[in-house]
Every structure is written in structure tokens, then in C-alpha cells.
Amino acid sequence: MPANRFNAFTEYGIGIGLRVPHYQHILEEKPVVDWFEIISENYMIDAGRPLRVLDQILEQYRVVQHGVSMYFGNATRPNRDHLKKLKQLTKRTQTPWLSDHLCWGSVDGRYSHDLLPMPYTWEAVETTARNIREVQDFTEIPVAVENVSSYAEFHASEMTEWEFLSEVVERADCGILLDVNNIYVSSKNHGFDPYDYLDQVPHHRVAQIHIAGHTKFRRYILDTHDHPVLDPVWKMYAHAIGRVGRTATLLEWDDRIPSFDEVHREALKAKQFLPDARTIAA
Amino acid sequence: MAQALMRPLTSRDRMQETWIDGSPTERVVRDFIKPNDRLSSFERIQIYNQQYWWRLLASFAEDYKGLRAVLGPRKFDRLAVAYIEACGSQSWTMRNLGRQLEDFLGAHPELTAPHTALALDLARVEWARVIAFDGPEKPVAQPETIASIPADRLHLELQPYITLLELSHPVDDLLLKLKESEIETGAFSNAVASDHSARRIQRIRSRPSAEPVHLAVHRHQLSVYYKRLDREAYILLLALKDSMPLEEACAVAFAGSKNLPDADAARIQQWFATWMRLGWFAAAKRG
Description:
Chain A has helices at 23-29, 49-60, 80-93, 122-139, 161-172, 180-190, 194-200, 231-244, 260-268, and strands spanning 14-17, 35-39, 63-66, 98-101, 104-107, 110-116, 143-146, 175-179, 206-212, 215-216, 221-222, 249-252.
């Protein structure tokens, strides 16, 4: 049963990211996993081994697409070639929703391949919402936009990050992929209360949640996705679930990737915080 | 901000302290980035500057292991920085990062000297590997269709994932040797870009071949392969790729041949049997 208009897939439970080192284990052992999240760009290709593996995965599992280079926050409109390839892939995966990041990443045809922070201005709200709407309209699939972790803030910002996110998703009429770890990382790097963020985003738009590990340095925290989830992030996750209700949750582990079983075990820790599938958010 | 994060790092992997116009970078970035109680504006942007270079350099090194093994890590890093600074990534996928490398190396021989010819050969083969890995694949032409069209009107289309190359070095042997050494030492296992200066790598060298090496870089059953071609086979395939009808392509390939026609015909028959088995022809059309 849907928890809200943007969260129509509460039964999705807990997923993990599909990563190359686990291909063989998954195909041979066929472990029970609620769903896999794929990085869309890894499969937006014409042919070859990655697509063959994806097809084999699709025979057994539900797959949700997550993008890393649509750059909703770019000043320019989404790249048409990129959109076409993305849509082509959605037909293959039958993904129920698509996600990408609240960031920019390329300028004048040069790509940073990074999730760059945005100045939180009213002008950026309009541009970003326009780009999200365009992706949603073109792909004809609901879009959820993910908050990124960041290490820099702009003088030009006119609002907080959560106010910016809220304004963007209202204008784009899209969902939110709430990355709890990213909120924690940014809160430490910028000195805000992460619970203010969790409490003030529009809960009725949260379509998915990300959890992950990070690395603490002496003066800042990096979003490295190479550790188990840390306790403060689990606490925030519990708080977020209390606010938004049962929501599809995904563990990201992208570097120093341990065995499949270890990653899956870590993801399943989220189960203790998820209410029964029949529960609907208040 | 983009200009700041895409400027090359210093030799100590730090952001450059002097801006393009000679003013302090700190002063430039302070104009748009807030400092906080722990990091200056400079230090905050430096995180992105480092991530940009480490990510792109790691991807480039992953795609050009052969070139790295020939040039050595320091020279390769200098080349990589120069290339990325000049060309950058112009695609949403890092798969295309090396698309302009061959042209860049041709225009900057000083970056690969004294191994320029070998470096060019490697760059061409390693880019061909990228294409062979995930390039488009069309339905394979059926033997009955091919047989039904007379040779003087038969146009055969090569699969788009195949690259035909004429090389001055036996790069295929070199790359296979490198792959074997990787398997033995694990030298090219996943590693973060920040440690590239410390990583030991296998160095490889090669003398030019006495005769040009003709090579097809292709894909078979989802794996990338190199296939050596006879000179005539290479010319024949190149002519087919240029939309020449089969009969004319054979004539071009064997122009000046001193063999008996039957001997040449037997070779062609043998090649086609192999190429058909490998699914190299995507379409057969009557022209």
C-alpha cells in the first residue's frame, strides 16, 4: 500500500547496490534480496557483458535505476542523447522510479563526474525544477531527487539546503531520495543540526532512502561509501522512518567492497527500524 | 568554481596557490565560497579539485594500462594530466574519456618520446578495446542471405564493435604479456587514484615489427579479443567497411598477387569461414 503519492512501493523493503565484484556470487548463489539499485550510466551502453549480466539479474530480481550524471542543477537543459539512452534502459529494467542528484556537474561541455554543490538561490530553484520536470516528462517515469553530501557552501545561497530541496521538489512535483548519510556528512561539514533537515523536508514526497558509511578526517567528513553505516546515521534513519513511514531503503557500498554477504547483512540492519509493510506514514 | 576544480593539482596533489591571473587562489575562491571554523575557502574547494583529478586520472589509467606500462607511472601521469587538462571529459560517461587521445598524442610527441610510435599504437588498440567491450552489435548476417547475392553486388557490413588497425608494433602480444603479469602479481587490482605514485607497475617494451602488424580488435562471447590478420585480409575487410562490393574488395586486396587464383580463393574462403563463425558481418545487402 502506498505510504504517500511518491512512495508507491513500500513493499520494496531493503535493497543493495548492484556492484561488479558481486556479479558472480549473485548469479551463482541467487541470494534472496528485496531489490537491487543499479547505476544507470553503467548500463546505458549498446551491448556487451554489462547488459548481459543485467538481463540475467532482471530475470530474478527487481531493479531500480539510480543516476549519477543527469546533473539536475546544471544551468543548461538535460542532454538529449543522455535522456534517450536513459529512457531506453528504463524499458529494459521496468524501473518503477528513477533517481539522480540535486547537484550540478558539467559546464560548457566539460564533465566533472562529481556531484557538485549548488548555490541555494531562487534562480537555481527554477532551473533545477525545470530540468527535473523535463527528465520526468521525457522518461514518463516518476523521478526522486537525492540530496548530496557537500564540502563547500556558497555566499550566494539565499536559503538552507533543506529549504532549497523542498522548493525544488514542490516546483518540479517530484519525489525525494533522502540520503540520511549525506545529511549527516553535510551537517558536520557545515555545522547544522541534521534533525532540522529531517524534520523540515516534505515527508509526503520521500520515495526512497539511502544509507551508507563515511570517513571522518580531522577537520571534515568525506562521503566515501567504504564503511558500514555509523551509529549516528542509524539513529537518523530511525528518526526519518518515524517521519516518513515504511520506505524503500538502499545501502550504498562503493569502495573497498567486502563480500556480498557482508554488504547484505549490513543493509538488513535497517529492518529493525522499518515498520510492518501495512503501516502507513502518519 | 568549475575553473578552480579543473585546474591541475601541484606535484604534491594540492590545489595551486596562484590563480590564472597571478592573484592568490584563496582570494579568488573566497569571493564565492564561505570558509568555516575548520576550513578556509581554499581548503574547501581543494577537496573538489582533488576529487576531480583523482577520479579522472584513475579512470584514464584503468583504460590505458598498456600505455602506462610503456611510459612508466611518472611520465604516464604527466601525459594524463596534460591530456585531461587539454581535452577533459566531454561525455556523461567516463567510458569516452580516451576518445581524443590518439589525436592528442599525434600533436604532442614530446609527451611520449622516445616511445611515440609505440605509444600511438597502444593508444589506438586500447581505445579499440573500449569499443569492443560495449560497442553496438547488430544482428548477424545469415549465410543463406550472403550466398543469395552475387559477389559483384554483395555489400557486407562489419559489426560496429570491430576495429581494424595497422600497427608498427606487436601491441597485441605486449598487452597479453601485461595481462599475464597482472594475473601473477595483481598489480592492477582496484586501487584509489590517490596512491598512483606509490604503486609498482610492470614495465613493458617492444621493438617495431619488421612488417606492419594487422589487427582486428573484436568481441566474441562478451570477451574482447585481438585477431591478427594477413595483410590482404586486412585490406579486404577495410574495403568492405568502406562499402565496396565483395568482388571489388577481393580484387583490391589481391592486386598484384603472384599466387594462383585458386590459392587466393582458398585463402578467402578460409577467412570468410572464420569471420562468419565469429559473427563479424552485420548485414548483407544487394548494391
